[in-house]
Every structure is written in C-alpha cells, then in structure tokens.
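Troubleshooting entry. The earlier prediction with adenosine-5'-diphosphate gave an output that would not parse, so I re-checked the input for stray whitespace and re-submitted. Clean input:
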Amino acid sequence: MQSPIKKLAVLTSGGDSPGMNAAIRSVVRTCAYMDVEVMAIYRGYQGMIEGDFVLFNARSVNNIINKGGTILKSARCQEFRTPEGRKKAHEQLTRAGIDGFVVIGGDGSFRGASIFHKEFGTPVIGIPGTIDNDIFGTQYTLGFDTALNTVVEAIDKIRDTASSHSRLFFVEVMGRDVGHIALNAGVAAGAEEILIPEENLGLDRLLDSLKRSKKSGKSSSIVVVAEGDKTGKNVFELKEYVEKNLPVYDVRVSVLGHIQRGGVPTAFDRVLASRMGVRAVEGILEGKTNLMVGIMDNQIVFTPIDEAIKGHTKIDRELIRVSDIMTI
Ligand code: ADP
C-alpha cells in the first residue's frame, strides 16, 4: 500500500549525544531510498516554531556519521511547552507540507512530541538519543556506549596518577537519576566502589570498604560516583567525610563533566543509529505513530512513546554482583 506520507522532517532536541548525526544521516538516506522528501529542522522545537527548515537529500549528510554533537543543533525551547507555541509549530509544518517527523532526543523531547501528536494528529516517531541510557523501551540509547568509553578512558588516565601518588579518587560521572554509566564504567575501569542512585550504599559501608581495600594492600583507589547518587551530598562532601574519618587516605576529586557528551561515536552507536533511523522511517511510512524505536535483545522494536516516558529503566543487578566480586 502506498503511504500517504510524501514529506518527512527530522530534528534533534534536548541534550545532545554522540550518534545523533549518524541517526540524522540514516533518516535522510532512508527517506531518499523510499522516495520521500525530507526536511531538516534546525534547533529542535525552537526551529520548528520559527520554520527553520532546509530540504535535504542523500548528499546533505555526507561525512557526518563519524561526528559527535548534532549538525542540526539542539535547543531547549520553552515556547513549545505552551499550546500557542505548538500551534505555531504546527502552522510551520503545514506551510512546508511536512506530513510527519522523526525526533531524536530524550524523554523531554518525547513528551513534547506526544502532546503535539495528540493535539494535531501529526505522525511522529522518536529515536532515543541520550548518554544516560535512562529511557524505557530500549536497552541502549544513542550515545551511551560512546560516553561509557569516554569515561573508561578518563578513569584509566586518572588511575595512572592515583597509583603514582597512592591516592583515592572520587570520579563523578553523568547519569542524572540513573547509574548506568557509573556502574558499567566502574566495572570496566576496575573501580573499588561504585556509588549509584539505585543503591544507597551508605557512608559507613563506604568507609568499611575503603578500610578493607587499604588493608588488602591496595595503594590507590577509584570510587566512581553517579551525579545523582544519594550516599553523600556531592563528591566534594564525600571527599571531606573520608578525609576526616580515614586520614590515611589522600583524597582527590575529578568531575568529568561535559567531555562525556562529546566525541566521535563508537561503532556500536553508529550501527545502532543507522538501524534505528531506517526503522523509524519505515515505521512512519507503514502508518505507525507516537512510537519510539528501541533495541531489545538485538532486535529493533517499537514502544508507545507514552510508555517510554513513564517507564523506568532497571539497573543491571548482575553487574552489581560482578563489581562486588571484582573488588575483593
Ligand atoms: P531531553 O529531550 O534531552 O530530555 P528536555 O527535557 O530539555 O531534553 O526536552 C527538550 C525539549 O522538549 C524542551 O526544551 C521542550 O521544548 C520540549 N518539551 C519537554 N517537555 C515538554 C512538555 N511537557 N510539553 C511540551 N514540550 C516539552
């Protein structure tokens, strides 16, 4: 059956993540392959409201698969949270003859897309792009694998200096309210302790563990702390607490910050982005709407956007166990 959709749009919205460009490329090339026109929307929903659109073709996305960030720019747009702002956006899409869109972003972007879909019936598919890996309906979000590798590389470097000076380092990593980056990076980089929001380790257990570590002959230690961890108020307070209660340790703090968001996407993220982009366009042409593409057991699957927004991802308990065993 011929799809009534003749022209699609693609945008990136909210926090950027490595792999977004690979997803843009995939959406654009799949549209070209399917003989559907495709418009790029710049600056997320802000650009949608302002009509910041450019007609793309297969060649418009040359040489971007290997680039971090997003060539379309991203934005946080307050106006899109208002019915008036969304009405303006709808008028711009109608004027440009756009029949539906693919939004690459996080749960905020999906919330906006879902409300827009309910108000105007515009077909929409979401591609999860965030380094935090905190979106229900997919085992991996775009950018998570790249961010994880960036963090592991950074901790490896920190370990070099930590061991030269017999120091204890608290390394804070991103992840808002979830500990996926912290847990995976902690295991991969051989951290002595991993503090994540899902498990409140407690300060006493942390001290016990550090004491044990010292006793067992370890001269330096790395503790990975997710930014949303609730054990201490923040990494600097953790440092003060440990210095006060375990003066044997010379403690330092490293907050990795925005380096985790940038960089060349890994092969995993590029492949995932390419697969998700293809299915997003195929899905919307098949009449699917208000869905998010995700990956489960290496299969590309669709989840209703409303479930993706409401649901919570679970921390991998087996990894916690592995980490406990490794830090003997
Ligand atoms: P992310 O997509 O990374 O979670 P944000 O939470 O900043 O990032 O959301 C991106 C954009 O999505 C916001 O700037 C806003 O334009 C839009 N958005 C988020 N929540 C809503 C909402 N409840 N209603 C309408 N638009 C929203």
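This one parsed fine. The chain is about 40% helix and 20% strand.
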